[in-house]
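Q: Structure tokens for this one, please.
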Amino acid sequence: MINFVQRSASPRKTWTFKRGAGSSHQTATWSIRSSLALLVMACILPAALMSTYFIVSDYQQQKARAVQNAIATARAATANLDRDIASIESGLRVLATSAALNADDLPAFYRQAKQAQPFQNITNYVLTDANGRQQINTILPVNAPLPQGVTPQLHKVFTQGATVLTDMFIGPATGKPILAIGVPVRRNGQIIYGLNAGIFPERVANILLAQRLPPNWIGVVLDSQGKVITRTHELARFQGKSAVPDLVRMVREQREGVLETTTLDGIPVITAFSRSSISDWSVAVGVPKASLDAGLKESLIKLLIVNTLLSVAAMWLAWRLALAKVVYPAHRLLARMGNLSRGVDPGPPSNAVTSREFVALEQGFSEMGERLRLQERERRAKVAAEAANQAKTDFLSRMSHELRTPLNAVLGFAQVLKMNTADPLSARQLSMVNQIESSGLHLLEMISDVLDVSKIESDSIDIFIEDVDVRALTRDCQQMLTTQASSAGVHLDTITQDGVSQVRADRVRLKQVLLNLLSNAVKYNRPGGHVTLILQEHEGQLTFRVRDTGLGMTRQQVEHLFEPFNRLGRENTSTLGTGIGLVICKRLLELMGGSLSVRAIENEGSEFLFTLPTKASTLVPPTALDAPAPGAHSTE
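A: Here is the predicted structure, written as tokens:
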């Protein structure tokens, strides 16, 4: 385990990140049988929906055709009604020019009107004067008493001087519902009489029946007040009554139209209507919605039955195929997997499998079993290697501590010999003691490095993150290396960007990294060379660059730079080193949230650089550094 400790001016807080501790969750699963059943339904459903769409579309088209037929029927009936009224009006205007009327010979005109009545196919002729009194009524004998008074609408013949078509009223002579058409009779430009023709509603009914409506369609003729003149169904019950309000309102507002409403006898219908162009009468044709919906319901029921039968047959066939081709092979494959998981020989692949996919699965399973056996052997070898590595680490750790004690004693005695002023050493003896001390210090450095490596590999090193005064730290490093740099004839310099003050890191480990990088830059430099430490801050990150003018490295050397105990061929030189200092630097920087990279050109020097955060926040991964200069070698 690696412990990260956060240091600040407040009491210390410790952040601990533990490796391992994975998590798992379960998800709902479906059996192959359920999945196949769902697949069959998914295949059938689109066809069912498409069939439903076509049925509903056909129903809409049938409905639209029925509405168009109803409109056409209403138009045709209205046109026939207008022609019939026009023919009656023409006959009245011819009869109004009779010479008998001009001579006020009413008996002669009565005979003339009786003769014309069969040809006009009307109920009777009525002659009225300007006071509304009947002078002739052909439905009564010539000398019979005549009823007095006429419907007020007929009096408009005298006031307007035009043809008048009345609404339905009760005839005073017949006592039955009747209609009337009146024209003016003029003499010398003056209207002296009103000549009227009476029409029983049956004549209008015959015009409506001539349209040959389907038996369940309802036709009706309305007068200007919206009252029923005639009707194809239950005429006696509704004659003279006002039609439904919605129809009456639309007839007054529009000449033609379609609406959904309910008839007077409570039948929901789609009604098409047309109003006369020469009168205010209207013809309406109602198509019962039940007759339209019946076809749709019948088609949908048939579709439901067919789809149900097809679904059952398809699911049965799919079930049989699924059992033979999918379920049973899958069960056999699962049984082999179970045997393998229990450490039992799973056995050979089944010869009953005919599906290419399951054949491939069986072959893949056999290959997977072989790989698992190999992985198990590798796992055991890895466990053994890790145990050996741990034993090695424990051995190195113990031996490092055990070697320090006698080594420190050797170094101590060497220093005592050098400091003995009472019996000073000769030049030859002093040289040998210096050699002992130098070799002892080198050995002590190697032991410390090996101990650090063992701690890193066993994840037992502690990293204390705090705000580090980077200027003070670099001054300490420069002072500690002044003697070494002077001895090597190397100029050591530090360039710090303005405003750089602190960095988030472990002070001890960061100092260890800088000392190692600067010491290497001095050791592998040339006399009169330069070592420069450059500090640059950008977007909360502080970049450290250690640049030297030494021997540099080839591309092949850079590739093996961070291999432990590999000194890249310089182990045969007089320059001391262990070959693990850069490995330790790289691991320590990674633990502090940075990364170490290098740029090197052979015979032109090297530059090591890394980046650490400057603000107290979570540890961030190292940011990408600048691209290497042309011709340079780099590694991360």
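A few notes: The two ends are 24 Å apart (CA to CA). DSSP finds 15 helices and 21 strands in the chain.
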